[in-house]
Amino acid sequence: MSDSISAGATRTAPGSHTADAGAPDPRRWWGLVVIALAQLMVVLDATIVNIALPSAQQDLGMSDGNRQWVITAYTLAFGGLLLLGGRVADLVGRKRTFMFGLVGFAVASAVGGAATGSGMLFAARAAQGVFGAVLAPSALSLMTTTFTDPRERGKAFGIYGALAGAGGAIGLLLGGVLTSYLNWRWCLYVNIPIAIVAVVGAVVLLHDRPGHSEARLDVPGVILGCGGLVAIVYGFSEAESRGWGDASVVSLIAGGVVLLLAFVLWQSRAKSPLLPLRILRDRNRAGCFLTIGFATIGMFGLFLFMTYYLQGILGYSPVRTGLAFMPMSLAIIIGSTQISARLLPRVPARALMVPGMLLAACGLLILTRLGVDSAYATHVLPAEIVMGLGMGLTFMPVFSTATHGVRPQDAGVTSAMVNTSQQVGGSLGTALLNTIATSATSAYIGGHLTDPSHKAQVVAAGVVHGYTHAIGYAVGAMLLAGCAAAFLVNAEPVAHGGSATPNAAH
């Protein structure tokens, strides 16, 4: 017995008038605009404050040791609570949690923008993460239940994948513009009008099946799963400043792993599990989760190092730095909407994902040749375009394949797993690659600084050496993502009568 949302949903019995098959909502594409706005807001906030951070630090008197919490408070709450947010969406109803998340995110943004001290800003960023953890899986699961026709699904997920891939770079540009021409607070205030438009649009345009209120929330699963994720994400974030060998870092990561193992054991026995293991047993979904996790490690490494390289080495302003990322955003959009969305109904998902990861790895490989005097046009721009096309080819089939054929009552938690894989990958990538870069820089400077009069040149060369050394590891992460897609994802093109999840029937 298959639990999939059939690729041939339109082939129903004569006289059937279901909303999905007989009469598709004529306003569903406007509904996609609403969902896309909400998703863009969540993705933007992972990077928009990066460029604004120096201004916020000076304005609020933050110490260098504490400034990371502007970023970490958001990613910690967001990554740790996504599974809970996805299951709440399944139980209560996705439209309700979508609107609740939007309103809460806007209020938290307003508080953060009005912050009078660092503690107030940290708390507001954590609240943004909490509401984002409710909002993100609701948005993706609404996509899953709204677009079931294979060709429409390809177009819709192409747009969604483009936003997921390009949103980080767009956030860097928008953060630079708002910080330069207004002030850093507008990097938070900008969410308020976006959320208002999205809430109004959700009320008018979005529809959803009722929540599955007969099921119960898995409280032990919430404690074990969310606790494990929070511990691991927190451990990754602390490793950046304390080092991987620090006792507290090791304890957090080890404790998080133990909690997650206990979580898996509990999920196999729970009557209403937070994460039904049938979702992970499906090889296509498992392959997609691994692919997006490894891919995000490499992608966040690019954002992290290229932001510092463009501003610290090439001397770019915040706005110019943001603009420098735009070619990659455009390449992601083209790869996702013009290539993946058109080909996915005709070719297997891995036929897009594997070449996409190889392209992304090649783009990063170009960046390992950077030097202190490298030019943007000859070194950075080609790498951005190649990597952007690769990420665009990959993101769209990952989102579409991971959520296709899922049971309606599991749509939220499946969507949350996609986002969780992305968030944990991003947190790991930032902490791991930054630690690798810092260590390589210190070793380079220690081995080359023989003449104090050349200190500035040696330090600059050491910093770039650290970046390129760490980017080499990011190349490895992209290749691992390609391997996960090649060996695990075997979904057939749905337009040709295949199932996007051939092993989803349980």
Automatic annotation (TrEMBL):
| Bias type Polar residues, positions | 1-15
Q: How does it sit in the membrane?
A: Multi-pass membrane protein
Q: Which residues cross the membrane?
A: 29-49, 69-86, 98-123, 129-147, 159-182, 188-207, 219-237, 249-266, 287-310, 322-344, 351-370, 376-399
Q: Which CDD domains match?
A: MFS_MMR_MDR_like
From what superkingdom does this record's organism come? Bacteria
Please state where this protein is localized.
Answer: Cell membrane
Q: Which UniProt keywords apply?
A: Antibiotic resistance, Cell membrane, Membrane, Transmembrane, Transmembrane helix, Transport
Is Cell membrane there in the keyword field? yes
The alphabetized list of GO BP terms reads:
response to antibiotic
By its UniProt entry, which InterPro entries does this protein fall under?
Answer: EmrB-like, MFS, MFS_dom, MFS_trans_sf, Sugar_transporter_CS
Q: Which residues form the Major facilitator superfamily (MFS) profile domain?
A: 31-494
| Annotated Gene Ontology cellular component terms | plasma membrane
Give the matching Gene3D superfamilies.
Answer: MFS general substrate transporter like domains, Multidrug resistance protein D
Q: Does the keyword Transcription regulation apply?
A: no
Molecular functions per Gene Ontology = transmembrane transporter activity
Q: Region (Disordered): which ranges? A: 1-22
- NCBIfam families (alphabetical): efflux_EmrB
What is the protein name for this chain? MFS transporter
Q: Which organism is it from?
A: Streptomyces minutiscleroticus
